[in-house]
Please model this.
Amino acid sequence: MKRLSLVTSNSGHAALFQEASSCPVCSDYLRKPMSLDVCLKCINSLQKEPRGEDLLCCCCSAVSQKNKVRPNRQLERLVSHIKTGAQAEEILQMNPRMRKFQVDMTLDGDTANNFLLISDDLRSVQSGHIRHNWQDRAERFDLSICVLGSPRFTCGRHYWEVDVGTSTEWDLGVCRESVHRKGRIQLTTERGFWTVSLRAGSLLSASTVPLTFLFVDGKLQRVGIFLDMGMQNVSFFDAEGGSHVYTFRRVSVEEPLRPFLAPSSPPNGDQGVLSICPVMNPGTTDAPVHPGEAK
Model:
């Protein structure tokens, strides 16, 4: 997805692009750049050579004939794209205020697949090789290796973080309370799952139809999830770097939503653990907050 690949581009490269597209006189983004690579509004501030007809470069003092100064349209278009991308990068960042909505979440063992190993504090889960003989319940996933979190959400804004560690395969997000628990399930928005998935250590995708492939800078180790039921959005962030990963819009809120977690299964050779992170900044606020909103 090009928009996000631009937002999550390497910060070093972004700094170089920004420097190359800035006017050496006013340090702002080039506006109507000329062949001297300065803004049109800065041309008049350049020092004139002794005869008063030509212009001296502000950087190297080379002389340019005034009648040969021309608008640089190609550079102007390039700067416009760079400036738009830089503005988008500022917008699509994780808002620290989201953590004020962090919930104290645990795993619901009654929904866990029988091959899952859940920690005593109900905050960590991984796949095992031995099947448990847990009681068969209507809410338990019988074939799919996954578990739901508690509490369930009916309104308001909620935030939580999941440490995915070194796992090379996982699924995280939210789902409807009424999703099918028996048989193999398909993680799609049409079936009530709004999830981001990792496969083979680097293939990241969102559960749209068809799949939306995502691109991030580096490896996700802690995923932040922000659910705003009033706005009908669920957003995913790199909780360590603060960059935006993906936002589902028009999420169905006609019934309760549940946190969804699925670690890798043992046949994939990955014993990665998914851990719900403890609440960092307890407390609530009545002020609305949306992804990208200023602090």
Helices lie at 2-7, 11-20, 40-43, 73-91. The CA atoms of residues 107 and 120 lie 10 Å apart.
